[in-house]
Write a structure and sequence with these properties.
There is one protein chain. With about 375 residues, this protein is of the alpha+beta class. It has 2 domains: about 160 residues, Uridine Diphospho-n-acetylenolpyruvylglucosamine Reductase, domain 3 (2-Layer Sandwich), CATH 3.30.465; about 160 residues, FAD-linked oxidase, cap domain/gating helix (Vanillyl-alcohol Oxidase, Chain A, domain 3, 3-Layer(aba) Sandwich). Helix content is about 30%, strand content about 25%. The protein is built from 13 helices and 17 strands.
């Protein structure tokens, strides 16, 4: 099933007799066993107004096409979406609809915000085959929902995206990265991780508008990124260096791919094992890193995000116990995913809300069954 228009998509959904797996570029490795509903032919940039910082595109439009159009006007997607292909060993082309459906956000999230913060509007087809636009369509059982926020991060379980509207931002004139030496004598646990999180928190808490803060224990370095006008970046870099000097020796690496490497977790790409994504409070990150007992770790978002490379089949959630956050299984074999589930189990009140939403928008449970519980 590969619709070429929104109307055709709605007709297909209305006529479904069973569940489907929604597929765009197929790069995130979440397609289930149900027949595929492929939206990769719903393509094209429908509207782009650089002066208004607004772009509207069909959900199946390749992300590369969107980024090329923006780059030609000196603009970008500020939330820096991750490309999962290297980490997961997948092929295909990421789509803008897939980015929105998974709320994919990279290192700049600590400053600019997540994908959902730049999402202005959506068009999607619900489980009954109705086309819903932006939440502005008045339907008795829809009024009151913030559909834009609901669709971002819903992983296709509430509806099939057909079009997204996004706010975009200008590209910076200059970028500078500071690297702070934080030796990893204890494999990112104990005082080293605490020191690294302290340095990242110090950078992000400064008035110097840091747009990225990450820690790679294997390199033994914390990275802090500054972006903007060249004179401003030079000034802020000098002042931030003075502020962070107490944490360790500071260098300015010339590594153009550094932040895309961090964004895409390329350091785990060719290494065996399961990959987990832990979302937590930075203050909890050192303790969780120690409990994980991971083969390798990578910290992003100032410690809000920990990537963990684990032995195959490891139940990381059991190791971590209860904490204020969640652990998502990003890469594993099918047996481990079937046993542990991709997403962290929700507390009962949130699970009830989630189920109520799915019942409202997809009452027959047709979209991506089993993906989010």
């Amino acid at each position: 099933m590969t619709p070429e228009t929104e109307t055709e998509l709605a007709q297909i959904v209305a006529g479904l007799s069973g569940p489907v797996s929604i597929v765009g570029g197929g790069t995130r490795g979440v397609a289930g066993s149900a027949p595929a509903l492929d939206i990769s032919r719903l393509t094209g940039i429908h509207l782009y107004e650089p002066g208004a910082l607004t772009l509207v595109a069909a959900a199946g439009t390749p992300l590369a096409e969107v980024e090329a159009a923006l780059d030609a006007e000196g603009q970008r997607l500020a939330f820096e979406p991750m490309d999962h292909r290297v980490l997961l060993g997948t092929s295909g082309a990421p789509t803008i609809g897939g980015v929105v459906a998974a709320n994919v956000s990279g290192p700049r999230r600590v400053q600019a915000g997540a994908c959902r913060d730049f999402l202005l509007g959506v068009r999607f087809v619900d489980g009954g085959g109705a086309v819903i636009k932006n939440g502005g369509r008045v339907m008795k059982n829809v009024t009151g929902y913030d559909l834009v926020k609901l669709m971002a991060g819903s992983w296709g379980t509430l509806g099939v995206l057909s079009e997204v509207s996004l706010k975009v931002l200008p590209k910076p004139e200059a970028t500078q990265t500071l690297a702070i030496a934080v030796p990893d004598a204890e494999r990112a646990v104990g005082p080293d991780a605490e020191r690294a999180v302290g340095a990242m928190s110090d950078a992000l808490g400064s008035p110097f508008e840091v747009s990225g803060a990450a820690y790679d224990p294997e390199r033994g370095q914390v990275f802090a990124r500054l972006e903007g006008f060249a004179d401003s970046v030079a000034y802020r870099s000098a002042r931030l260096s003075e502020r962070l000097a107490r944490w360790g020796d500071i260098t300015r690496p010339e590594a153009p791919d550094l932040w895309s490497d961090i964004r895409d977790v390329r350091c785990f790409a060719d290494r065996a094992g399961d990959v987990w994504r832990i979302s937590c409070r930075p203050s909890d990150a050192p303790d969780l890193a120690q409990k994980a007992g991971a083969d390798a770790l990578l910290f992003d978002w100032g410690g809000d995000l920990i990537w963990a490379l684990m032995a195959e089949g490891s139940d990381l959630r059991a190791r971590l116990g209860g904490f204020d956050g969640h652990a998502t299984l990003i890469r594993s074999d099918q047996e481990t995913r079937a046993q542990l589930g991709m997403f962290h189990p929700q507390p009962a009140p949130l699970a009830a809300i989630q189920q109520a939403l799915r019942t409202r928008f997809d009452p027959q449970g047709r979209f991506n069954p089993g993906l989010m519980g």
